[in-house]
Write a structure and sequence with these properties.
Layout (H helix, E strand, L loop, with lengths): L2 H6 L5 H10 L6 H8 L7 H14 L3 E4 L2 E4 L1 H21 L5 H22 L2
Antiparallel strand pairs: 1-2
Length: 122
């Protein structure tokens, strides 16, 4: 079971999950949210991110208040539900992997992503 399939059970994309997670700590200006989500933005860039944000607004999970994006009560509830499912999936995916091994794997993947970004900006 992957994170994508876990989230799809709640009709969420990974990018939408990242939005809910970012806003669960408090409201953010749209520009600040874009900065926070930049590491999760793929080559399709802002168009997909805008579609995902619009879907969250249509579902009344996120709204704009005083120029900042904010989670609605339903958004907080969905984030809480998704958090439980995501944690279960992560625990299952990392079964038998020590914290040090996990840290090394994440570090290597981060460097690979950085290298991939560098190669695409040539």
């Amino acid at each position: 079971m992957t994170l994508d399939s876990t989230l799809s059970r709640l009709r969420l994309t990974r990018r939408q999950w990242e939005v809910l997670s970012a806003l669960s700590s408090g409201p953010l200006a749209p520009a600040k949210l874009r900065d926070v989500l930049r590491p999760f933005t793929s080559a399709d860039g802002g168009d997909a991110q805008e579609r995902d944000m619009a879907a969250l607004v249509r579902r009344r999970l996120v709204f704009l208040l005083d120029g900042r994006l904010t989670l609605a009560e339903a958004g907080f509830a969905l984030h809480s539900e998704a958090s439980g499912l995501v944690e279960t999936t992560r625990r299952e995916l990392t079964a038998g992997i020590g914290a040090d091994e996990y840290g090394i794997a994440v570090s290597v993947l981060e460097r690979m992503c950085h290298n991939a970004d560098r190669l695409t900006t040539r």
